[in-house]
Amino acid sequence: MKTFTSWTDLPPSARGTAAAIGNFDGLHLGHQAVLDLTRQQSSSGLSVMSFHPHPRSFFAPDAPAFRLMNRQTKSHRLEKLGVDIHFELPFDARLSSLSARDFATGVLAEGLGLAHVVVGADFCFGKGRSGNATDLVAFGKELGFGVTIAQMVETAGIEVSSTNIRNALSQGEPERAARMLGHWHRIDGPVLHGEKRGRDLGYPTANLSLDGLHLPRFGVYAVKFDVLDGPHMGSYLGAANVGTRPMFGKNNPNIETYIFDFEGDLYGAEVSVALVSYLRPEITFDSLDDLIRQMAQDCELARERLAHA
Fold first, then answer.
1. Catalytic residue among 88, 154, 195, 256
2. CA distances (Å), 248 to each of 28, 52, 154, 193, 299, in order?
3. Both 125 and 183 in a single domain?
4. What total number of domains does the chain contain?
């Protein structure tokens, strides 16, 4: 996948494509429907246009973290979905100040030279979100690009949206989130050095940061664990704690995974953790022995859940 971070000075091979446009946080089934429609309109590969940072982060940088995917996870998922070109435009003061007409003219028609765009029915664009999908159709007729509007997707009578996925994760229901995503909710990143308490307890863990991400319900999960590079590259199973480790004082939230039947050094390796099933809340125990006994039970239950996942 080729990534471009500007809408100017593009090579001829990147112009004239059909592109799906949106933030694509989570790349859920609704987003995948938009990509499928884009494929049908394209004769030269699949293109996606998104924004970094997310507009919500630009306008409210101090608001609670909400993203389902970090930049790396989104890139991995776009590649898996067969995207050939990713226009990842910088959402900054310049872009946010463009009117709906200027965005359609300067970015879509003249800058990217798009032949066709596909957006969701709730798509808004331009300063103050002044333009909507219907406006985009009118601009397309005027400026010479086609527009397809994808309707909202439902599963089991529930509208598929990033908001509903966040709600499912907040309630400790990764299975429900997965039904809307079309895949397990994943957290990607490098394995970080921690305080190595898990090793001392007989359960060494691989630790990942949750900075900038929507926080799932704190507690213990059965997980699938993929090592994406290095000598241990491959797929594994495990049990993970999401939270602040209350037995050990005040800590920033993270995810710590104990990988079943694994030996090796993963520090610095890029990994991906899929939340499969919620096992129990994060709690404080009376003693380390009680914690260790509970961890053994957690691992046994995680193995049972993963055998049927």
1. 256
2. 36, 36, 42, 16, 21
3. no
4. 2
